[in-house]
Amino acid sequence: MYVAHIGSQRIAxxxxxxxxxxxxxxxxxxxGSVHVEKTTSDGxxxxxxxxxxxxxxxxxxxxxxxxxxxVWEVGPVLYAPNGSEVVTNPNGVELRGSWR
Length: 100
Known about the structure:
By secondary structure, the chain is α+β, with helices and mostly antiparallel strands. It is built from 3 helices and 7 strands. The protein has helices at residues 16-30, 41-47, 54-59, and strands at residues 2-6, 9-13, 34-38, 70-75, 78-79, 85-86, 94-99.
């Protein structure tokens, strides 16, 4: 198996291409340093042995790249005491998006 070290996370994959693709996408979109290492199932169990059962640790190994969607956001948004949206500055609304 292959473990992608991205940010402070470690994500295990069965295929090297999925691990490499996830690491490359992370660098392209968020920057920072990443690396992928090859390990055995025993190595993965030792790495995540923080009280997780062996079965749960092995189920966390991915068989494909994580799915995601581009999510648009508009804001800031303010609400009146009755819950209705209040537009204080129509030109101050910012449209932004990110992968999630």
